[in-house]
Amino acid sequence: MTGKSESRVRAGAYASSVGAALLIAACLGVEVAQAQAIMRTPTISVPMRTPTISPSIAPRIAPTISARAVSVDRGPRTMATIPHTTTSRLRPTTTVLPYARYSPNLYPACTAPYRDAEGECLAQPNAGGGGSGKPAKKSAGKGRGNATPAAANLRSFANEFVAEIDGTLSPDDADALARRHGLTRISSESFPLIGATFGLFRVTDGRPYEAVRREFAADGSVRSLQPNFRYVLQDQKSTPPSEGDPAQYALTKLRLPQAHTLAHGANVTVAVIDSGIDTKHPELANSVADNFDALGSAEGPHVHGTGIAGAIVAHDRLMGSAPQARIIAIRAFGGSNGGAESSSYIILRSLNYAAEHGAQIVNMSFAGPKDAVIERAIAATAARGLVLIAAAGNAGAKSPPLYPAANPNVIAVSATDQQDRLFTASNRGNYIAVSAPGVDIFLPAPDGKYQMTSGTSFSAAYVSGVAALLLERNYTLKPEALRMTLAKTARDLGSPGRDELFGDGQTDAFAAVMAVPADSATPVAAASGTTKREDAGKRRDEPGTRAIEQPSLSSADDKSTISQADRPATR
Q1: I want to staple 307 with a disulfide (CB 3.0 to 4.6 A). Which of 272, 361, 443, 566 is the partner?
Q2: What average pLDDT score do residues 164-193 get?
Q3: 0.85 exceeded by the pTM?
């Protein structure tokens, strides 16, 4: 009995203790399972280190999708209650290019003529063709594809095509062709330079550009089709025009006063494909022999075109490199306030006019992307024996080759300053032929004013004038021989020998003229395979006039062979 009594007492005591524990728990309002956790330090899973990104693992991002913000789950919000705890900002383990914000397949579009000297893409075409532009601001919009239209429009004009069409089509037929594909024909004409008919067409029904392109290209009347590429002038923003006549250091650098004792560019015609020229400026008086407005515009003179013409033929208070040369002023760039730009179709019209109207030299102080139509026109122009000279471009050290300068038929010119250093915004590359002064150049401006400006545009213009001196010295000089003369007589700059900054060196007008055998008594018409205007001889004999003569028209057998060393891909 005693044992049983003790057992009952122990059982009662145990039950009482358990009941007391439950009563306390109930009073505290805490579940039993949670009460167990209160008695030890909580375990919180929070990443406390910067994630290590393995460089061997490719990112899972489609190349055509622009970058966007990603939210990272950093664990429970209780992390904020832990004292003295911060999270590290994510930092990539490899260098990220500043262009990463652009979709990779669009990056080349903004690297051509629309990048500043630091290599940044510009939000819109720079008034000066690069070099001094400001980097693009980040887009306010978010999401996929926001950069696509802007980047595409930098290279070409939106919703426009340049199409080679059947030459037998009348204007009405061409209009009917356009209507069948929801297009509007802006213009079309025959181009004898390349023996083809081209039209400019625009999408007007709102359909996607690519869908229209495929449909239009499949039409039997369309021979070829491409975008209407954009070209921009290659100058820097000028300082406000001011009066005065400071020393022109370019004259000394090029040794022009010495060269002018032998030649002045008389009877040589230079086509200036540019913006409007102030033909009434005293520096250009009686120097513009012909005008052609490829735009069909009514705009007045422009600061760039006037400056380019002045670098070649100025002869009043200033001195150009060929003061007695004659200019064919071809307006191909519009825009009254520095934003001058042109297109594939207009450049084609301009080259065709220059070749058909007696130009011997063509100055092209503009740049753009590689363009199949313009490449074809340049090849045809060079085959006729015209000397083609272009600005290397102002897109800076990181820019790819710009055109037409990078075409092997063209003499590409980079810019130097008064200390013979390369202009910081000047393009580099193995296609650079020679250099010439192009920084702080004093030139004429519209309305009888003057300007101080910089850019490879003006370097090219100076070299075009030097080419005119060589042709006056010897009318039979072929384009390739002229190129080699400039190269061999250039003053070496930078590292010894040819380089990607100055080409063969800085142009030396006096040395080049001295290197050409004098044959000024031989008119152009006397050279093999050439033609001459009927009144050229009469005009040559008239006092105070200079004949505008047809350039040498070389046959296929005669065509100057471009050295492999001059081709961008192999130089």
Answers
A1: 443
A2: 93
A3: no
